[in-house]
Amino acid sequence: MKKLFLLFTVLCATVALQAQVISGYTVQGSQGTYTAITDGTVMDTTGMAAKMINKVWYPDSIATGLVEKAGFPIGFDFEFNDIMCNQFVIGTNGYIALGRDKVSIDASHGKWVLSSEDNADNVLGIVPNADVYFRENTQVSYKLEGEANNRTLVVQFDNWGVALGWSDEDVVALDMQIRLHETTNTIEYVFGEVSGTTESTKPFKI
């Protein structure tokens, strides 16, 4: 199995990270620059409540329970937990799930998705141990960047509302990306702007 690195690039954010055990993977942290994507494929939020929890975007629907069907194309083969994945879906709680020709995920696990034995082997992301909300101009999108053999899938949570304080009313807005890199087979989590308090009383699970 290829060695896979989880790279954290954090800009203007203070969050507590609580790592889940992923055998054979290495975690690294770094400082860098957050570069927002533009002209990506934007997820449909029609009819979605302000509290955007326990939902998963598929190409033709928004799942709220256990679903197994075709997801969005990664754009290249990406090895994760010994599976050569080519599709993904996006969870509103800050994660993506991967699969080969189809993706299986139980959206109802929500913020506990990385703690669930049902989903832990095909899910990756930065999942706050808190509720997440739509704010003004919140947008979730993805884009494939680069040329063959050097492509990157970027999944972006823009102006994502996260209740990091002691109460659900203490919501901050942050920008976050999950980046899958071709050839190097690395995953990068990148944080950008944070509006509101940067002191988190609730951890993010990875």
Overall spatial form? globular
Mean pLDDT: 79
Strand content: over 45%
Fraction of residues in H or I helices: under 10%
Instruction: Give the C-alpha Rg.
Output: 16 Å
Strand element count: 19
Could you state the order of secondary-structure elements as H and E?
EEEEEEEEEEEEEEEEEEE
- Put simply, the count of helices is 0
- Helix and strand composition category: mainly beta
Low-confidence segments, given as residue ranges, are 1-23
Straight-line distance between termini: 20 Å
Biggest sheet descriptor: 8 strands, mixed
Characterization of this structure:
The chain is mostly beta strands. It has strands spanning 4-10, 16-18, 25-30, 41-42, 56-58, 61-63, 66-69, 72-80, 83-91, 95-99, 103-106, 123-125, 127-128, 132-133, 139-145, 152-163, 171-181, 187-195, 203-205. The strands form four sheets. Strands 1, 3, 4, 14, 15, 16, 17 and 18 form an eight-stranded mixed sheet that branches. Strands 5, 6, 8, 9, 10 and 12 form a six-stranded antiparallel sheet that branches. The protein has a three-stranded mixed sheet with strand order 2-19-13, with no helix packed on it.
Please provide a brief summary of the model:
This protein has 206 residues and is an all-beta fold. It has no helices and 19 strands.
Please supply descriptive tags for the structure shown above.
206 residues, mainly beta, 50% strand
